[in-house]
Design a protein that fits this description.
15 strands; alpha/beta; 464 residues; 15 helices
């Protein structure tokens, strides 16, 4: 191996390093490759196993395939492949089959390198083609890319998927009335690596503990900030409070595509989340989409639930037409996909400060962060065979005939979408639900009048 590489080798390896950097930006291990013939690049490649769901999509393999297509021949005679990391056995075998003239690599790979580090496939004279191999070209640059990449993974255990966005953390700085530390989970099977945010305050439950856990589920276009007025009251009672942000909302990751969202998927995420945190003696607190999905959860594990606090929401079973107010809301969302979330809250809650209203805008700095806001309105089940409708019918039967816990209903009477008529109908479907608590000044986001509701809930469920 020469001490100083030829200038042309350094040049081509520099192009391979550009491909490696592009792989890192896409969340892939930063390895890049180029194939050169007669002084020109005929193909490039970068690592893409994650994006392509393909264990063979190493940078070298991607480049070899592209080169074969460019030449119209799987034999790449007279070509040189430059790659930033010593090739593995799979890639080395493919290079030999392709009959490359040369392979030039950067950093050695002491774990899987098959060009001299662990083994040397190129050194077997029995193979009917001999490829010249040279290593160490811009090795430090390639090695540094790998060190930086894996250091970031060690520091940040929740890397961002390339098909999602994450709201910058500074957007959540110093929000009024929201002092709680963020918690994250990303290894639930249904999340497939997306990062989900939640609040988890109060005493952690022990076996035999009689304390309650209030599980607070928000709707669209809100997030856990919606519960900031209720959480202190609930914590003061000695209870635990858990408040997740649905994927696409709040501090949780936000898929870029509207089609990533579905009723069944969000429900599965919540089921796995509840199981992961091993929540017991749960009082389910729901409103809006928190109820549409949340009311279908207890029937899967009724032994976990002690109570239900239900605010302006519904069960969309597909058996009855959606309310006129909801249809109007859905039409507005379709016609104004970039509506101002802060203005929406200000219009329905004149007692809120401008800073509080703007806090609801925090998760959504631009259109790219708003896929969930666009996806959720048309996702409400309307026909009997819509996604979630059958689950909602099963849930309705559960609440009517099998529910054994305590219930409490609070209705914001100023809600034009899911107001008193809708809630009265839901009330009849919940077994042994006492007369609802009526809030004449509250609108759809009834939690903005939540102190009185939380106080009533503590008395009702904890007997205090």
């Amino acid at each position: 191996m020469p001490d100083t590489p030829a200038p042309e080798d350094t040049h081509w390896m520099g192009l391979a390093l550009l491909e490696a950097r592009a792989a890192a930006l896409a969340g892939e291990v930063p390895v890049g490759a180029v194939v050169v013939k007669e002084g020109r690049v005929i193909a490039t490649g970068r690592n893409a196993p994650i994006d392509g769901h393909d264990p063979t999509a190493h940078a070298e393999m991607v480049a070899l395939r592209a080169a074969a297509q460019a030449l119209g021949n799987y034999r790449l005679e007279g070509c040189t492949l430059y790659v930033t990391l010593e090739p593995c056995a799979m890639c080395s075998g493919a290079m030999l089959h392709a009959r490359l003239a040369r392979v030039v690599f950067g950093a050695a790979d002491p774990k899987t390198g098959a060009a001299g580090s662990v083994l040397n496939l190129f050194g077997h004279v029995q193979i009917n083609h001999q490829t010249v191999v040279q290593g160490g070209v811009l090795a430090e640059e390639g090695a540094q890319l790998l060190r930086d990449f894996f250091k970031e993974r060690r520091v940040n255990p929740h890397p961002l998927r390339d098909d999602a966005v994450r709201t910058p953390e500074e957007r959540f700085a110093e929000l009024p009335g929201y002092p709680w530390a963020p918690q994250y989970v990303s290894d639930l099977p249904a999340l497939a690596g997306l990062r989900m945010h939640y609040l988890d305050e109060g005493p952690q439950q022990q076996e035999g503990d009689s304390a309650l856990t209030f599980l607070c589920l928000h709707g669209n276009p809100a997030w856990s900030y919606l519960y900031r007025k209720m959480i202190p009251v609930l914590l003061a009672s000695g209870a635990r409070v858990v408040a997740p942000d649905l994927i696409g909302f709040g501090r949780s990751d936000k898929p870029k595509k509207d089609g990533a969202h579905s009723f069944v998927w969000h429900r599965q995420v919540l089921l796995e989340f509840i199981e992961r945190l091993a929540l017991r003696r749960v009082v389910l607190v729901v409103q809006d989409w928190g109820g549409l999905i949340g009311l279908t959860l207890p029937m899967e594990a009724p032994e976990r639930y002690a109570g239900l606090l239900v605010m302006n929401t519904t069960l969309a079973t597909g058996e009855e037409p959606l309310s006129a107010g909801f249809v109007a809301w859905r039409k507005m969302c379709a016609q104004n996909p970039d509506f101002d979330v802060a203005r929406l809250f200000a219009r329905g809650n004149p007692h809120m400060s401008p800073e509080e209203c703007q806090a609801y805008n925090a998760p959504f700095p631009d259109r790219g962060h708003r896929a969930a806001l666009r996806a959720f309105p048309p996702m409400v089940p309307e026909q009997a065979d819509d996604g979630g409708a059958a689950l909602s019918r099963q849930a309705k039967d559960f609440w009517s005939h099998q529910w054994q816990g305590q219930s409490l209903m609070a209705i914001g009477l100023q809600d034009p979408v899911l107001g008193e008529p809708v809630m009265r109908a839901l009330h009849t479907a919940i077994r042994d639900c006492p007369p609802p608590m009526l809030l004449p000044q509250a609108g759809h986001f009834v939690q903005e009048h939540g102190e009185a509701i939380a106080q009533a809930a503590v008395r009702h469920f904890a007997g205090r």
